[in-house]
UniProtKB/TrEMBL annotation:
Domain of life: Eukaryota
Protein name: GDP-mannose transporter
Compartmental location: Cytoplasmic vesicle membrane; Golgi apparatus membrane; Endoplasmic reticulum membrane
Lineage summary: Eukaryota, Fungi, Dikarya, Ascomycota, Pezizomycotina
InterPro entries: EmrE-like (IPR037185), SCL35B1-4/HUT1 (IPR013657), TPT_transporter (IPR050186)
Length: 378
């Protein structure tokens, strides 16, 4: 599973592209929009740009020294997602989206609670860690999901996949070592006596995020099959049911005093923060659309490779837009993490090819992310 980025991509399962494969204006007379809609290059570029911008915007919002209202931020983001989805439904852009069913909502509520845990811990980890380190550690989620599927769904971990997992762990260890060393020696920009404690808090939140992300993905896969949910249903229920949880948590656990609101939304950056929050809600939906667009115009294999390759520009963007320290260890960790993603994608390609060669006397064993995608699009 390509981790969108992130936690926020987990909020919505990829949409099926509207009018996929259709020809506007007849053969040879496609409109400019139709040509773009069926362009592999544009689909890959759109997916990469959406993923990178989502991570950068999230980091910008939560990285303020006085920021402490993550629940409020995520509640607004979910609300924007729901409004965007409903606007798409009533405008005819998002089709075959049914009305909300309270009985289904009750059954789906535990999944939304796991989603809240995932996105909240992700936001906290991103608040304390640099974008490159956060991106590297997100790879560990793939390992937990893979072995979770081995235990509960009869999945399989091939030797090549295991090798990619080893590289993921190595890159995470190097990233942590480099970050802590930079903090201790004063190279880190946030030079302070509690620099290491701050990093340790980030690693703790990152560990919780890995667990929450894996539980969310595995739990969602199981419930989707039982409830026969489609892509758009999952997207709506995920965001709509997470709003009351986030609002209640914000009211109970966060400081709503005028002084604290002023610290979180200072007048000089208030407008840009609100634009960023609204943008993050809209782009979460756009990422899901671009995921389906990329798969339709290319292939699931190409999409997996793009997800692996996309880790590098996200990490580099974090170095460019924020004051993350550029060290030999950090750059090495990014490189190893990038290679681990490529090895993992190649392992998926080989495993899929081997499964196709098997006689159809039994259902083939699929890789973790391939099976999850199949279930989500069932």
């Amino acid at each position: 599973m390509d981790k969108k980025n992130e936690d926020y991509s987990g909020r919505s399962i990829p949409l099926r592209s509207v009018g996929a494969g259709s020809s506007m204006g007849g053969p040879g007379k496609q409109s400019a929009f139709a040509r773009v809609e069926n362009s592999p290059g544009f689909s890959v570029l759109a997916y990469c740009m959406a993923s990178i911008s989502m991570t950068i915007v999230n980091k910008y919002i939560v990285s303020g020294s006085q920021w402490n209202m993550n629940f409020l931020y995520l509640a607004i983001q979910s609300a924007v997602c729901v409004v965007t989805v409903l606007a798409g439904k009533y405008s005819g852009f998002i089709k075959e989206l049914g009305d909300f069913d309270w009985q289904k909502g009750k059954r789906w509520f535990p999944i939304s609670a796991l989603l809240v845990g995932m996105i909240y811990t992700g936001a906290k980890a991103l608040q304390f860690l640099s974008v490159p380190v956060y991106t590297i550690f997100k790879n560990l989620t793939i390992i937990v999901i893979a072995y979770g599927e081995v235990l509960w769904f009869g999945g399989q971990v091939t030797p090549l996949t295991l090798a990619s997992f080893g590289l993921m762990v190595l890159s995470s260890v190097i990233a942590a070592w480099s970050d802590i060393r930079a903090a201790v020696t004063g190279v880190h920009p946030a030079v302070a006596t509690d620099a290491v404690s701050t990093l340790n808090a980030g690693y703790a939140w990152m560990g919780m995020n890995v667990i929450c992300s894996a539980c969310f993905v595995l739990g969602m896969r199981k419930v989707i099959k039982k409830m026969n949910f489609k892509d758009k249903d999952t997207m709506l229920y995920n965001n709509l049911l997470s709003i009351p949880i986030l609002v209640v948590c914000s009211l109970l656990l966060e400081d709503w005093s005028s002084e604290n609101l002023a610290r979180n939304f200072p007048p000089e950056t208030r407008k840009s923060l609100m634009i960023g929050i609204i943008y993050s809600g809209v782009i979460a939906i756009f990422i899901s659309y671009c995921s389906a667009w990329c798969v339709r115009c290319t292939s699931s294999t190409t999409y997996s490779m793009v997800g692996a390759l996309n880790k590098l520009p996200i990490a580099v963007a974090g170095l460019v837009f924020f004051d993350a320290p550029v060290t030999f260890g950090g750059v090495s960790a990014i490189g190893i993490g990038f290679v681990s993603g490529l090895v993992y994608a190649w392992a998926k390609v080989r495993q899929t090819a081997e499964n196709k060669l098997k006689l159809p006397t039994s259902q083939p064993v699929m890789s973790a992310s391939a099976q999850s995608s199949k279930d989500a699009n069932a």
